[in-house]
Amino acid sequence: MTMKHALAACLFLLTAPVAWSAPAPLAPRVIVVAGWENGADTGDAPGEYQDWVEREHLDTVVPVRGGPDKPILRRNAEGVYGLVLRNGATDLMTLALDPHFDLHKTYWIFTGISGVDPNVASVGSVAWARWVVDGDAMREVDDRDIPKDWPYGLYAIGADRPNALPVDANHYGSVTDVAQLTKAYPLNQGLARWAFALSRQAAMVDDPAIAARRAAWKGFPNAQKAPFVMMGETLGARRYWHGASRNRWAEDWVRLWTRNQGTFVMTNEESQTNQGEMRLLASRGFIDADRVMVLRSASNFDMPPPGVPITQSMGDEGPGQNVAFDNNERAGAPVVQALIAHWPRYRDHIPTAD
């Protein structure tokens, strides 16, 4: 071969196209979603995320394209991931739009602490939801100005009084089908019952200080119980409400929108936003809505005990938070373990108690 031919061959090798394929996207088996964390993700006072990170050994930080500077995603070697929503539902969209992830077979467990209805459960208790109910968009009349036969001034858009479903779809001129006004996001109830069956015998922790506080709840037998696992609905509302009157509204609102099938248990400020985002992502083919679960734990009651001023109990979350963080992970861990242990089956066949 002449020098000219050798040079031409080298140039060809240097410039010829090289077959290359991108690495396969990461396919999480389970993503546990937490709303916030105190300080670091490990090693200090826990928030909603830390117990999951430490106990599930989510030791590997996983970058998310377009995510914030502080990491939001971790994983372990078994395909269990933890996502902390440092920027709320925006972080859900950021993860779903990252092409490095395939979320079509992923199971989701949305976790977090909540206020609890003392008619139904106690501080430290945990509930698997069948519906997430939106408590934001509604009509409101000041309770001091309502008709005498109304229980409160909150009622559905498209209705003409409290505790009535909409009959007029044309609110703001933007909706033509009254069904679009629903405020109840149904979850996969067969999957929720399956999860509850696995976790109902999980050992819940208690706290002497919380146990002592239960004595104040005379006439509320469920509020006086030690922490337990149950099924019951989550109501999300951006405003932080408190008190017996609004607790009555929450009980009624959940019954109304679930057609008397659901029971109000937990209230927080973000569940409705997160599930709205997940429904949108499902409609666009990014995730499977039938694989979404919601697990909330009670850090405080949503009204004061008998004889206590409402302003004294408003926001009284601190004493119950650690028990709620702890029991949330304890109730959810058996579900995560079962999904991983039987992944060859559950990858393509969603478990159900039906």
UniProtKB/TrEMBL annotation:
InterPro entries to which the protein is assigned, alphabetical: Pur_nuclsid_perm
Any one GO BP annotation for this protein: transmembrane transport
Identification of the protein by name: Purine nucleoside permease
Taxonomy of the source species: Bacteria, Pseudomonadati, Pseudomonadota, Alphaproteobacteria, Acetobacterales
